Amino acid sequence: MNGSFMAIGLFIVLVIILAPLVGRYMFHVFERHPNTVEVRWLARCGFDCQEQGIGEYLKAIIALTLLGILLLMMLLMGQASLPGNPLHFSGLSWDLAFNTAVSFVTNTNWQSYSGELQLSPLSQTVGLTVQNFVSAAVGMAVAIAIFRGISNQSTHKLGNFWVDLTRGVLFILLPLASILAIALVGQGVPETLSASHEVTLLSGVKSLVHMGDVASQVAIKQLGSNGGGFYGSNSSYPLENPTQLSNFLECFAIILLPAAMIFTFGYYIRNHKHTRTLFITMTAFLLVWLFVTVGVELAPDPSLHGLGLVDTQHWLGKESRFGPALTALWGVVTTATSNGSVNGMHDSMSILGGMMVLSNMLLGSLYYGGVGAGIYGLLVYILLTVFIAGLMSGRTPDYLGKRIGAYEIKWMIVAMLVMPLGVLLLASIAWLWPGSHAAMFSHGAHGITEWLYAYTSAVGDNGSAFAGFGADMPIHNVLLAIGMLLGRFGIMFPMLLIAAKMAQQPKTTGGELPVSGPLFGGLLSSVIIVVGGLSFLPVLVLGPVAEYLMIHG
């Protein structure tokens, strides 16, 4: 157990040290002048390097999204007739293909399927892995456009989407993913063109082990806040996560780029005190959730009392190589960053531990959020905090010298309503749909938690599952896909519109609210908890709170 605590401590220290360095590197990647190779590559693809306004930027995102969904659906539904399918998997149904395509294009990676049992190597490599890169790069490009909008003045331009997309893939995601993939291969993660390998078990029975380009897909699923694994049981599967070192590297890769994005923002606005305040505040959120979750996972399991067991911690559903503490670390990190990968089953966590990872997503995975997606989700709450503070102090609400007016407030409200309306409305429609309850393996309060977790994971663009919920039904596949689209673009587009409006304003100096220091960090934390958290208090009472009271009562 001491080793687990040392690993957690090292994890936090590395985040604090490396996030500023990577954040600075990302700033230089996106803001250098296009070189000859980039210009020629984009020209051959039919694009130029000229800066775009908000209309052109949105059209590019929508076009790429629709094309990605269509092509991936065709690949998944037609894989039985395509090459690269040595195990002769049949094509996916239309609803499962639609759900999976939307899932990977929106960077959610919710999995209603089991990869090694339903997808061909071609679908895994050409379909899913490619979208892991593209969807993550789209999130980064949008974040950079928002940074430019907030920092620029008297302009209609936000940069060039295609340039930012290309740079995100070629100079950030691809190099880091290659390094991580090589390290994982060294730890025993498969990377082969062979689809399967026959082995003889100790009992003498022969068994088929599914193989493929596992290491490369795992690397980008972690770095890109994707989360969808090669295997159905994700990073709790030994071939996907074989050692303590691979577990540490994969878990750390989840948080590196999202944390670095905060410092990238600082270089754009040239206010490092503000970004340090944001980083400290978000890290404080992470530590609080982590300490509470680890504490309840290491506490005695009341269901095992009286059995004479020496160690009654919550080991059910935990990989014995990692234990409850490191499973809790992964669970908190993956739900705090909208990554969604798992190294243990969240459904088997303690009641309060499960509620902690669920509440992470209900708050919008704000600290640190996904690659790109987290920082512009956080900016919604920052603008709201500045607006509320301005009303309380009698000042005109300004953020970094830009006025927050009626236009910005309108789109802020739209973005803030995405999570509560998306989760509660879609989950309620599914609950009332005839036959939808066949997806539930558990009933009562625990079943409500599983149901709520699934729709929170979809709308929150997280993708992790609480297990115990059979989502592969047409109604759930369609509604979860709608939730993924809503969660992805319902916050992205309003923040782009706000940034475009702010870019047109000239900067003013003097009179604005100080946005650094403990006071602003505390006020921001209060707004996140009160506004973001209280919307879901009633349904939490029906689920994990009720379950906890029934067991401990």
Structural features, described:
- The protein is globular, with a radius of gyration of 23 Å.
- Helix content is 63%, strand content 3%.
- It is mainly alpha-helical and 553 residues long.
- α12 packs antiparallel against α18.
- The strands form two sheets. It has a two-stranded antiparallel sheet with strand order 1-2. A two-stranded antiparallel sheet has the order 3-4.
- β3 (398-399) and β4 form a beta hairpin.
- The protein has helices spanning 2-31, 36-44, 54-77, 94-105, 115-118, 121-151, 161-186, 214-223, 244-269, 272-298, 323-336, 351-362, 373-393, 406-432, 444-459, 474-503, 518-533, 537-552; strands at 196-200, 206-210, 398-399, 402-403.
- It starts with a helix and ends with a helix.
- It is built from 18 helices and four strands.
Give me the secondary-structure category. mainly alpha
Distance between the amino and carboxyl termini: 30 Å
In sequence order, what are the helices and strands, one letter per element?
HHHHHHHEEHHHHHHEEHHHHH
Q: Helix tally?
A: 18
> Strand tally, please?
4
> What are the low-pLDDT stretches, counting only 5+ consecutive residues below 50?
none
The share of residues in helices is 55-70%
Shape: globular
Strand content: under 5%
What's the alpha carbon Rg, rounded to whole Å? 23 Å
* Average pLDDT, all residues: 87
Main β-sheet, spatial strand arrangement: 1-2
- Biggest β-sheet description: 2 strands, antiparallel
